Amino acid sequence: MTETIPNPLLKRAFLTPNRPMIRFKDRDYSFKEMYERALKQAGHLQSQGVKKGDYVAVLLQNHVDSVVMLLSLQLIGGIAVILNNRLTAEELAWQIEDSNSILFITEEGFRDKLARLQLEIPWLWKATIDTSNSMSPAVQDEVNLDDVCSVMYTSGTTGKPKGVLQTYGNHWWSATGSALNLGISEDDCWLCTVPLFHISGFSILMRSIIYGMRMVLHEGFNEGLVLETIETEKVTIMSVVTTMLSRLVEALNHRTLPSRFRCMLLGGGPAPLPLLEKCVEKNIPVFQSYGMTETSSQIVTLSPEYSISKLGSAGKALFPSQVKIADSNGKEIEANQSGEILVKGPNVTSGYLNREVESRKQFVDGWLKTGDVGYLDEEGFLYVLDRRSDLIISGGENIYPAEIEGILTSHPDIEDAGVIGAADHQWGQVPVAFVKKIGSVAEEEIIHYCSERLARYKLPKKIYFVDELPRNASRKLLRRELRQMLDK
Ligand code: ATP
Ligand code: MG
User: Which PANTHER family match (predicted)?
Assistant: First the structure.
């Protein structure tokens, strides 16, 4: 049976019209105001031919107008193909075409980048949209939970990006799972400095609508501004990735966060143990989490009460979801044995856009194969080790590059690091490291530093100093490019 619910924005604007929805720069916008703005914009989009079920590509910065754009599409049932604004023109063109979008909406800030972009479909510049004479749009009063709300391409860390179909049901259950875990309070305020084009940012917007919660939107991440905003805007929750968290820890210095601040939701990639230890020391309430574009945000989360006893774990699956570890045949394996992480739940995508065969291969009996390796301890806490494709096997021992990278980047003279396996006649493979240094540290010193923190077989056998590590538009390390560098 397919379920329908009232269109989320309509319902929210009806329930709590005057509550502030979003703070951007120096001003609050209520749910009613955002709804009214979105309605006008929806009329304009409709006059441009957008109908229910059409894919519309959007390339936008974090801005209140971008939120209005995303909401207006939801009002008329348009599907937002949300593009990463760090992609190159070629990558953008590929995703726009791949998604069969009928319209491309963007803004001035990208004009230079877009100069070389050739598209078959019409463009709309955000600033030139005139909503004064908008027609009255055919608002979808209800949404079906199986209707696709958004499409987001995966980061393309392991291969070509894939367009993930995210339904209203996926977002609804993701927001519900998060609320059942964190609780919702009248005073909650979620700070969004992560991009709206990532599921990390977009999911904050969906939670704001579903919970009736105020969010503060920043154009980007600036640690000084974040600390000030947490105080002045009475922020209680914030989403971060590792680099943001380590910059915040630095910037905090000896200060502490206000006691009302209750959750630093950390996700997007591996969390180095030394950083988590520092946060425990400084009393920063870090909720480690594991998730991906395919799970519409976090699916596994660790509360701070376990920060010490389960240090390094990503936690347990949220209420509506499940996680298990399986061998290469999809058979579940026992506690403390590592294997592929499989996930299931109503927040998990049903597949990738226009990739039926690939989508089917990704699922076994309703479980999504994540391509990540990890294990569950005897109490069911998940430990994410690394991506299956990046595992190094040395003399029969499994080595996970993320663990070594976490140690390397905890060295004060190392800004960034990447580890891969190099062929070795004795061991099969040995780990080697690519390092971006900020100080004058030498290779021997780095290896000595690692030897005090890592088992002998995990020590990098060679350190290559580089100016920059190859990272994709989501700032994720591209170890496949490191492997190419080694082959040259
Ligand atoms: P692609 O699927 O195209 O290779 P991607 O997997 O990097 O790209 P995302 O959906 O942005 O695209 O990232 C999800 C991935 O991030 C997870 O599959 C996992 O590898 C990594 N990740 C997320 N949370 C954690 C975590 N807590 N620890 C380790 N890795 C994590
Ligand atoms: Mg992935």
Answer: AMP-BINDING DOMAIN-CONTAINING PROTEIN-RELATED, LONG-CHAIN-FATTY-ACID--COA LIGASE
Rounded Cα gap, residues 166 and 149, in angstroms: 6
Give the ipTM of the model, two decimals please.
Answer: 0.99
Residues of the chain with CATH 3.30.300.30: 391-487
Cβ atoms of 103 and 35 closer than 8 Å: no
Q: Which residues pair with 383 in a beta bridge?
A: 375
Q: Which residues make up the CATH 3.40.50.12780 domain(s) of the chain?
A: 7-385
CATH superfamily of 7-385: ANL, N-terminal domain (3.40.50.12780)
**Class of the CATH domain delimited by 391-487:** alpha beta
Contacts of 70 by beta carbon, 8 Å cutoff, 6+ apart = 58, 60, 80, 82, 150, 196, 202, 205
Per residue in 385-443, pLDDT (tens digit) is: 999 999 999 998 999 999 999 999 999 999 999 999 999 999 999 999 999 999 889 99
Cα(258)–Cα(319) distance, rounded to whole angstroms? 29
Tell me which ligand sits closest to the C-alpha of residue 290.
1
Residues around ligand 2, an ion, CB closer than 5 A = 154
- Calculate ∠ Cα 40-198-259, nearest 5°: 95
Q: Which two tokens stand for residue 421?
A: 């396996």
Q: How far is the CA of 19 from the centre of ligand 1 (A)?
A: 35
> Residues 209, 35: contact at Cβ < 8 Å?
no
- Taking the CA of 477 as reference, the closest ligand is 1
Cα distance between residue 429 and residue 392, in whole Å: 7
